[in-house]
Amino acid sequence: EQKIKQVGIDIGGNIRDQIAERQTELVRMLQLENIDMTRESLVKIERGIQHITGTQLRGIRDCLHTTYDELLSESSNKK
Fold first, then answer.
1. What is the pLDDT of residue 79?
2. Among residues 68, 72, 62, which one has the least CA distance to residue 30?
3. Using CA of residue 42, residue 46, residue 48, residue 51, what is the dihedral sign?
4. For the CA atoms of 14, 18, 44, 34, what is the dihedral angle to 10 degrees?
5. Could you tell me the pTM of the whole model?
6. For the chain, how far is it from start to end, CA to CA, in angstroms?
C-alpha cells in the first residue's frame, strides 16, 4: 500500500486533536449525567492505569450507545 508523506502537515497531531475532542465531548456528556469524570481520568482509564467505577462504566455505555459486552470484551488490539 502507498504511504502518505507528511509534508507541511501534521497528520498525527490532527488525529490526536480529533481523539481529544471526542474525549472532551464524552466527559461533558458524563458530567451532565452527574458522573464524576475528567478528561485526565478518562485517559488513565483508557490506558489501563486507573480503575473505573461501575457508575462511570454505566455512563460511558449509555453515552456511547453500546453494551457492556462491547466494553468488557477482550480487545483484538491487545493480542
1. 45
2. 62
3. positive
4. 160
5. 0.77
6. 24
Per-residue pLDDT tens for 46-65?
A: 999 999 999 999 999 999 99
Distance CA 42, CA 52 (A): 9
**C-alpha grid cell, residue 26:** 464524552
Among residues 37, 12, 14, 15, the alpha carbon closest in space to that of 26 is found at 37
* 14 contacts 4 by C-beta, under 8 angstroms: no
CB-CB contact of 37 with 66 (8 Å): no
How far apart are the C-alpha atoms of 38 and 56, rounded to whole Å? Answer: 11
pLDDT digits (tens, 9 = 90+) for 29-42: 999 999 999 999 99
Between CA 79 and CA 76 the distance in angstroms is: 6
